[in-house]
Write a structure and sequence with these properties.
Helix content: 40-55%
Distance between the termini: 21 Å
Strand content: 5-15%
Length: 275
């Protein structure tokens, strides 16, 4: 992560704007203040990606950023309309500079650095803008390992590795990154991730758990996990619960949107952040 930040700091001067990709399910957790600081005076476009997996709670956070003068684009980068929405927003953040250049008779290709924490869909956003598969994508954190310039029609994009704060001061928000897959599952205590996810969903979206797993309110996280195992038939010999399969199922159902559109971060958690 330190190496990636150093690389971006070295290249930010070459860029005319920053495209900051956030996960719409947890835009506060996927916001890294160090990336904002690195951008300096460069205009920033906040791309709320994976919006098809988030509900309208994310709109409150978008309104906060726009009320403070920021520019946002709410997209699903795999969708057909995303390219048009992104291009319009990119034109908006660079309009002033393009006007100054035109007045001076100066014509140049604008460059944008694409940044964000792992697995927010940076490469998918780039492919949407390029109109073809130009950047490597995947459903695991850390797919992009190094920088790469992508030439598009009328502009260039710099794809960068996902970056995170060196330390998670807010463990509650850090867990949201684990839920959406921004942290590699292999280095996590997956038991804890699944149980914490069930606990938070029971607090914020209890009706979703009841609908999919027949989970009633008032159960402990472990009792909820056992309900999942019963519902899905994850039973071992001796009638013991297959907790591991149950945990994987819950997290996978959330990540794939099978529990419906969910936004974990709230407007209250966005207060105090300077986008």
């Amino acid at each position: 992560m330190t190496k990636a930040m150093r690389m971006m700091e070295e290249h930010v001067a070459l860029c005319d704007g920053i495209i900051y990709v956030l996960d719409s399910r947890c835009p506060v957790a996927s916001y890294n203040a160090k990336l904002k600081k690195m951008a300096g005076a460069k205009p920033i476009l906040y791309v709320f990606n994976k919006s098809d997996l988030a509900d309208n709670r994310v709109d409150l956070i978008i309104k906060k950023i726009e009320a403070e003068g920021g520019t946002c684009a709410k997209v699903t980068a795999t969708g057909a309309s995303s390219r048009k929405n992104l291009l319009q927003a990119m034109d908006k953040i660079t309009a002033e500079k393009k006007k100054r250049n035109a007045e001076k008779g100066y014509n140049k290709t604008f460059r944008f650095m694409v940044v964000g924490v792992p697995n927010t869909g940076k490469s998918t956003v780039i492919n949407a803008l390029a109109g073809s598969k130009r950047a490597i994508t995947g459903d695991k954190a850390g797919v992009t390992k190094s920088k790469q310039w992508i030439r598009c029609e009328g502009f260039e994009l710099l794809d960068t590795p996902g970056t995170m704060p060196p330390a998670f001061e807010n463990q509650y928000l850090a867990m949201h990154l684990a839920f959406v897959g921004s942290i590699n599952d292999d280095i996590l205590d997956f038991d804890d991730v699944a149980l914490k996810l069930l606990e938070e969903l029971a607090e914020k979206y209890p009706e979703r758990l009841k609908e999919r797993y027949l989970i009633e309110e008032g159960l402990t996280p472990l009792e909820m996990l056992e309900k999942v195992c019963l519902r899905r038939g994850f039973i071992l010999k001796g009638k013991e619960f297959d907790y591991e399969r149950g945990e994987r199922a819950v997290v996978d159902d959330f990540r794939k949107g099978r529990l419906g559109a969910i936004t974990l971060d709230t407007l209250a958690e966005a207060e105090g952040l300077k986008f």
